[in-house]
Specification:
alpha/beta, Rossmann fold, about 45% helix, globular
Length: about 230
């Protein structure tokens, strides 16, 4: 049976790496993105560029890359009072979670993705969630996604597998995985064309990519890239 997957592709470093990972392993890969009123909506423009560049630079992957889906989840932004959906300062709450946490975001993303996958005959959902280098979001945890996999499979009465290839990797290891998958060409594509910065700053290109340079997402990306390049030079 043909192996088919749907990748939750935001336009950021992690999901771009997961997309490359899927294209190496699955015969047919489709992508899905979500517009939910995020401050860093520039990532949605990056999605189009990355998809086009992947097709141009990696012919073998281009043959496997299928349809791209974009869903409007503006309602999520309307019910979320967070630093990721509102113009407010990024800070840590008493719970220990940063104000960038959007409650229910990944739960909704996977639920909608599973509906698309069911209709399209895709049996695997792939996301860039990670427990090693992350901001503590509870909907990124391995246990959360395993439970969601069971719930979706039962609710659809069809197997729906959730794959998270970055779950136990550091950001340094994520850069290394990208290099293993697509060499220096993929590293450069991710560095210059993806977007991770929570504040949506896509005007300053650093050695590690675009971003404000000080938000939690930029810090993780920068420290991971520096560790990766340091180990490469050693």
């Amino acid at each position: 049976m043909e192996r088919k997957a749907l990748v939750l592709f935001s336009g950021g470093q992690d999901s771009a790496t997961c997309l490359a990972w899927a294209l190496e392993r699955y015969e047919h890969v489709e992508t899905i993105g979500f517009h939910y009123g995020q401050r860093h909506a520039v990532e949605l423009d990056c999605r189009k560029v990355v998809l086009a560049r992947l097709k141009e630079q990696f012919p073998a992957w281009a043959a496997r890359l299928g349809a791209d889906h974009m869903l409007d989840l503006a309602l999520l932004g309307q019910i979320s009072d967070t630093a990721l959906t509102q113009d407010r300062e990024i800070e840590f709450k008493e719970s220990g979670l940063p104000s960038t946490f959007v409650p229910g975001r990944n739960l909704l993303f996977f639920t909608f993705a599973s509906a698309i996958a069911y209709r399209r005959g895709l049996t695997t959902l792939i996301g860039g969630m990670c427990e090693t280098d992350y901001s503590g979001y509870p909907d990124c945890r391995d246990n959360t996604l395993k439970a969601l996999q069971v719930a979706m499979s039962l609710g659809l009465d069809a197997p729906m597998v959730v794959e998270t290839p970055l779950m136990w990797l550091t950001k340094e290891q994520t850069w290394r995985l990208a290099e293993q998958l697509g060499g220096s060409a993929l590293i450069e594509l991710i560095r210059t064309e993806t977007h991770t910065c929570y504040l949506g700053d896509h005007t300053r290109l650093h050695r590690w990519g675009y971003g404000c340079g000080h938000c939690p997402a930029c810090e993780l990306r920068r420290t991971g890239y520096e560790a990766f390049t340091k180990s490469e030079a050693a």
